[in-house]
Amino acid sequence: MRGFESEVENNRNELQEFVYRFCHNSIWSAVSTYLYTYPTALNLNMCRIHYPDSAILQDMMLEYTANISIDEDHLNFDAILSCTIELHEDNPYSGIRTAETSQWLIASCSATITDKLDGLTISEIKPWQKEYKGLSH
Fold this sequence. Notes:
Blueprint: H1 2-37, E1 54-71, E2 74-91, E3 95-113, E4 117-127
Antiparallel strand pairs: 1-2, 2-3, 3-4
């Protein structure tokens, strides 16, 4: 059984390496666009800014992949990301305020792979929650 666990861990490491090498820039762009479009979609309960006018991605790291499936030449997976985000709020009472927050997000991805990466689609980005049912790292 130990050999099987080792093989599964090796496959997961290879997938994470693939995501870093070939998908990172596309996922970064999609997350940046998501944050620009929906700055208030984040969990900001513990942040001093609760209603940001804008959110800018500063850093993003792949924590793990989950819900991995392969269908012929399509690889589907969720990328669980830890992100550092800069928030801006223009408050009429206190002026322009900025803050930085760390958030985990889920990017649902589908990659078309032949002898190379032919395409990557990020179908959904949403905040990660403790109730997330993806595979653990």
